[in-house]
Amino acid sequence: MFVDHYRPKKRVKGEDGHPGYYWLTYEWSNLISSCGVCNNKKSHLFPVADEKRRICQPQVDRAQWRADSESFRTENPLILHPEIDAPEEHLTVDIHGVMRKKNGSRRAETTIEACGLNRDGLVWVRNRMITEVRKRLWDTAFSIRQEVQDKKIRNKEDFLKAMRERFRADFNFLLLKKDPKEEYSFVANCMLKGFRSFFAEILPDEATRDILHGAFALFGIDNSL
Predict the structure, then answer these.
(1) Residue 101 pairs with which residues in a beta bridge?
(2) 111 exposed, middle or buried (CB, 10 Å; 0-12, 13-18, 19+)?
(3) Please, are residues 67 and 29 in contact by the beta-carbon 8 Å criterion?
(4) How far apart are CA 51 and CA 182, in angstroms?
(5) End-to-end alpha-carbon separation of the chain, Å?
(6) What is the tens place of the pLDDT at every residue in 129-184?
(7) Which of 44, 62, 105, 164 could form a disulfide with 90 if both were Cys (CB 3.0 to 4.6 A apart)?
(8) CA-CA distance, 36 to 192, in Å (whole number)?
(9) Judging by DSSP bridges, how do beta strands 31-34 and 91-93 pair with one another?
């Protein structure tokens, strides 16, 4: 993990007359955690919506040096700040692990490109994580469906008991992955919010699909389990 300067301190790529945001070198709100590859990819990039609004010298009021200050917000930066902006309002992950923009967000599109968020290695790791969770859920659903077919589960009470007991570990695993301290927690959040599309709707078997829908309804996104 690296520390990146959100607004580059030495120069701004594509803006030869800009000295860089040198006065923010040690400003905490301008420092964000970043992986080394994303850091190198972004480098001195810092596009804004309107170059006429770009700030080129230190503000007199040091309170305006904060990344979320009124003066810096007027720049309309096109790269998302993970601690100030709400990434989930701009970004999502599809069922294959590819990062996508939401609601036509220009900022999401710029951030994905500037940081290389869809490079092969990242997509592969996201896809592996999604596949791991999907396998757990599908295996559980298949086992319950089979026991229903074999009449080992004979009534609604036994069915609900099996659902609670067997899916609990799977949902706990997914909830653990969404902890902000966990790597790729954003992917876990996308899986929970898009549970049906990630895990149920792509199942060809209707009976197993119904069991997954039932498990989702039984536990719910916000259930503390």
Answers:
(1) 91
(2) buried
(3) yes
(4) 37
(5) 32
(6) 999 999 999 999 999 999 999 999 999 999 999 999 999 999 999 989 989 888 89
(7) 105
(8) 28
(9) unpaired
